Amino acid sequence: MRERSAKKKLVQSLRRRTTSGTAEPGSGFGLGLGHGCGPGSGPSRGPSRRAGSGWGRSGVSCLLALGLMAAFAISLLGSGVSPARADDTLRCGSRLVSVDALTAQVAATCGEPTYRDRWYYNPALADSGYAPDIEVWTYNFGSSRLLQVLKFRNDRLVDVQTDGYGFSDTDGHCGPSAIVVGMSKYRLLAQCGEPASKRAEQVLQGFAVPRDARQYGYNPVRPVYLEHWVYNFGSSSLLRDVTLQNGRVSDVDSGTRGFDTP
User: Fold this and answer.
1) In 124-220, beta strands by DSSP E
2) Could you point out which of 16, 191, 224, 260 has its C-alpha 20 to 30 Å from the C-alpha of 181?
3) Least confident of 64-73, 104-113, 130-139, 209-218
4) Domains in the chain and their CATH numbers?
5) Long-range contacts: 55-62, Cβ < 8 Å, 24+?
């Protein structure tokens, strides 16, 4: 009943969007389509607008986009899948730790993390200001609570996220198909163990900016922690080449034939 009510509210919110061009306050669906979705939206281009319909081409495009987004959102509600949630606090028992806390304070409040991941430091990037000291902690409080992922920069907490529900143990099975894009490093290690080989590097990677910003020479970059892991499943399978970006699997490829070990 609760799921059906959530779907109904979502559809009603999206319908209101098509006529007003705005997201309902508190609905969480600011779809970024501006105020151009509704009757009379967009320029009229002669015969392309039906007489009396009030919907231009851009209006129809908005409706199509909203329909696709509604279907996607409803499918997420139906499947129970929820994206990683960012927060600025973590509750450990009756106490809270917040962003800007020192690593020592977090450890004193919550205990040692289940998994501690120190990101490789590239001294070549130090002069550019893009090589902070990064450490990521994962707390696994069991299957009844979400995994808590804490990111520290220069010894201070800067971000708290969740990574799905925790677990007491894994099924112990890891095959080539078990490694998927989006998997966190902690889950990968818990499921499949250490890889046969691995290497890491920190690089500067550009990201998309508006065209008018690029023409003024604004080309921002950000540091990305890249790891390249290889898993060997024996001579009956191909090697799996796994790329991780900032502690999460971003690409999985098949390599050459694997090999048997003594």
Assistant:
1) 134-139, 146-153, 156-165, 197-206
2) 260
3) 64-73
4) 2-79 (no CATH), 86-165 (3.30.1450), 176-257 (3.30.1450)
5) 62/18, 62/33, 62/36, 62/37, 62/38
